[in-house]
Amino acid sequence: MGVIRKTKSVQTILNIFNERKKAVSVVQLIELLKDEMNKTTIYRILERLESDGVVHSFLDKDGLKLYATCTSGCSSTHHADMHPHFQCQDCGKIDCLTVEMTIPEIPNRTINFSQILLIGKCEECI
Amino acid sequence: MGVIRKTKSVQTILNIFNERKKAVSVVQLIELLKDEMNKTTIYRILERLESDGVVHSFLDKDGLKLYATCTSGCSSTHHADMHPHFQCQDCGKIDCLTVEMTIPEIPNRTINFSQILLIGKCEECI
DNA sequence: TTCTTTACTGCAACGTGGTTGCAAAATTAA
DNA sequence: TTAATTTTGCAACCACGTTGCAGTAAAGAA
Q1: Distance B3 CA to D5 C1' (A)
Q2: For A25-67, how does the pLDDT look when each residue is reduced to its tens digit (9 = 90+)?
Q3: What is the model's pTM?
Q4: Beta partners for A68?
């Protein structure tokens, strides 16, 4: 499973993640690469990259899927992607945050993941 | 704006919220009420109830829209829906949590809302 | 280099959640 | 009861995402 072959398409997508450090939505990628590859290919490459621990995915405030490179602690077996994300309500831009947020204990429940999205205004939109 | 007329459809939906205390997905409601009203009507009633401060909406782990009754502090002008939600990864059930989670300060950004979803196993699925 | 295996890609079609425009029905106030 | 206005149903549409399958390309073996 995962990325086995370093195809041109995979390289192209990896380059995009390396250039921009921000999270990228699948929709953006499809638009950006519409002359280079099929949207199905994009979805499948991202899937493989994620299951390989290279990127992680999450949903933005509108439920759209985003991907960002994993900074540390992620592998194909475990994703340390509990970190919160920030989305600007005006320009839509999204960042991974490095702040730690303490997850509360809930009686009679176990908590395994969390999706935390903080929504507000970014530096440029304030 | 908001709910002006207490139609049969509105009453039906309000009753459902009163009976079940849990959050309900729009998809569930559409299935539940498929013989009584059109899905467009459901979407529009929920929209009105939300803008009236009667219910609040949020997205689950798959990006599906859920609604739950507002317990306190919500109005048509302001939604105090900063509380986190819990979703069971097995049965999919969702609860509003009453725990307070402190939202961190982020330099050069303002934070106005937050969507916090804690994912794990519920009482029955542990 | 060429061959062979197997992963990857493109295409077209499909599925689902959600939205829109408009005419008909229902509600409220007069 | 009437008139004004909000709601509703319908049908069509849109966007994001998925699937099956045939053709293409990568990687190792010969």
Answers
A1: 13
A2: 999 999 999 999 999 999 999 999 999 889 999 999 999 999 9
A3: 0.88
A4: A56
